Amino acid sequence: MLKILKENRYDIVLLSTAALFVLGSVWGSLAFPEGNWFCRSGAVMVLLAVMVEFHIGKLQQAENSDASLMAALEIPLTGDLGKDKQILSKCAHVFAILGTLIWGYGDLIF
């Protein structure tokens, strides 16, 4: 478990920051309604989710190029990036969608 957390620390920190930012902005919107903090947090959530997606995509691209080289050299392949990266990728997708909805319609919610 610690190995998974250590390997995915960057992605976990970004997604956690996005979630905490949105939760903090709910308080900010309730305390200071003229600032539209909740709406603005949607933009930050989308940005951080896209950063995670980019990072995972970069790892996938490196894995694919390694797989091509290994196939050319007839070395057995080890597999894909792993279930933990797939889960983080799906979470990032959900965060990007939620962030877009918050960004676009957050002023109607608060």
Question: How big is the Rg?
Answer: 18 Å
Q: End-to-end span in angstroms?
A: 39 Å
> What would you call the shape?
elongated
What ranges have pLDDT less than 50 throughout 5 or more consecutive residues? none
Number of helices: 4
| Helix content bin | over 70%
- Which structural class fits the helix and strand makeup? mainly alpha
Average of the residue pLDDT scores: 86
Largest sheet: none
Protein described:
The chain is an all-alpha fold and 110 residues long. The protein has one domain. Helices cover 84% and strands 0% of the residues. It is built from 4 helices and no strands. Helix 2 runs antiparallel to helix 3 and helix 2 runs parallel beside helix 4. The protein is elongated, with a radius of gyration of 18 Å.
Q: Which key features would you list for this structure?
A:
110 residues, mainly alpha, 4 helices, 84% helix
In short:
With 110 residues, the chain is mostly helical. It has four helices and no strands.
Furnish the topology, listing elements before pairings:
Layout: H1 2-7, H2 9-31, H3 37-72, H4 83-109
